[in-house]
């Protein structure tokens, strides 16, 4: 039978291991969701402009004209969209489709 100090040590090691695994999981998740670079944003904007979106123009149809340009870019790239407008089949956040 284990002594109380051995049980306490085992519990401490177990808790430390669990905490370490959780920390690594969070770090990997954060790394996978890196913010897009400036070059990626510029490329995304260029694709939207090619699809007819003009960001400098003050438009009363602002959200819909941007959405229409996004849909054109998605269609050009072979990406479908679901009812709420979320892209389906797009690469992970932070990547740009060409």
What features would you describe in this structure?
The protein has helices at 4-32, 38-50, 62-76; strands spanning 80-81, 87-88. A hairpin with a 5-residue loop joins strand 1 (80-81) and strand 2 (87-88). Helix content is 58%, strand content 4%. Mean pLDDT is 75; it is low at 88-92. The radius of gyration is 24 Å and the shape is rod-shaped. Helix 2 (38-50) packs across helix 3.
Compose a concise summary of this entry:
The protein has 98 residues and is mainly α.
Helix content: 55-70%
Number of strands: 2
What is the 3D shape? rod-shaped
Structural class determined from secondary elements: mainly alpha
- Number of separate domains: 2
Strand content: under 5%
* Gap between N and C termini: 65 Å
Low-confidence stretches: 88-92
Rg value: 24 Å
Order of helices and strands: HHHEE
Largest sheet: 2 strands, antiparallel
Average pLDDT across residues? 75
InterPro entries: DUF4148
Pfam families: DUF4148 (PF13663)
Protein name: DUF4148 domain-containing protein
Region (Disordered): 50-98
List the helices and strands and how they pair.
Blueprint: H1 4-32, H2 38-50, H3 62-76, E1 80-81, E2 87-88
Antiparallel strand pairs: 1-2
Helix pairs in contact: 2-3
